[in-house]
């Protein structure tokens, strides 16, 4: 007789309106190789707008590679080869001739380690809009305030906008990096383990922020923290050895996974 061990991760109740949502990214039979290392294998994922999609799985299974490919960051690595499609808003971003500058203005990225510029808090936020041609000081002031408010850090920094961003704590720096993304009015925010270098209180703040941000943006977050995926995401994709083993509503993944390997992973049997 086989016994099923029920995963112990609690998933908070979330509204389900997924069926009516449009797709922001669709990967179709996406493959990626670093030389001979086949790091992504036939990835099919349909990522919906205004949802938080979590990518989970053990170390080295391709999570970071996948999220970087959504922003075409992996193509700067000479050994990388890809096949298949990533459709972003109706266009295949892997196709020759795709104007990828456009993608860069639509997709914001937040990394594991906060990486503010060595500039003032104000300049960190105003930098992107300036690059996009906004020079009017009054408009830049408005963008800076709106972005910092959007990243739930305005009250903490409004009286020190000219201070170097490095003077802030790690958690504050990460919210500055999120505000920097918001300043370019992105469509999607990609987050690669955004809280793994943060303390628990800063982690909670970023998690609450993600819940707020999904009202306006689509968010894809790589996390090795399964509780975090359960708390904040609407959908979860479980990656293993470069494959998507299961992709479903987060409560389904954590309460009643279809694949034994998913169940083994979320109940802590490996990884
Ligand atoms: P994860 O984010 O799940 O930890 P990664 O996407 O970082 O996994 O890695 C997937 C596989 O790709 C691993 O075998 C890793 O060694 C390889 N890999 C990742 N980045 C590079 C790189 N820049 N060059 C060569 N191989 C890489």
Structure description:
Keywords: ATP-binding, Hydrolase, Nucleotide-binding, Transport. Its EC number is 3.6.3.27. This is Phosphate ABC transporter ATP-binding protein. This protein is α/β, with parallel strands linked by helices and 271 residues long. It has helices at 63-69, 100-106, 121-131, 137-150, 154-157, 170-182, 200-213, 226-232, 250-255, 260-266; strands at residues 23-34, 37-48, 52-56, 80-88, 91-92, 107-110, 188-192, 218-222, 235-240, 243-249. The protein has a single domain, classed as P-loop containing nucleotide triphosphate hydrolases (Rossmann fold), CATH 3.40.50. Bound molecules: adenosine-5'-diphosphate. Adenosine-5'-diphosphate binds next to strand 2 and helix 1.
Write the layout of secondary structure elements.
Blueprint: E1 23-34, E2 37-48, E3 52-56, H1 63-69, E4 80-88, E5 91-92, H2 100-106, E6 107-110, H3 121-131, H4 137-150, H5 154-157, H6 170-182, E7 188-192, H7 200-213, E8 218-222, H8 226-232, E9 235-240, E10 243-249, H9 250-255, H10 260-266
Parallel strand pairs: 3-8, 3-9, 6-7, 7-8
Antiparallel strand pairs: 1-2, 1-4, 4-5, 9-10
The structure holds adenosine-5'-diphosphate.
Adenosine-5'-diphosphate binds next to strand 2 and helix 1.
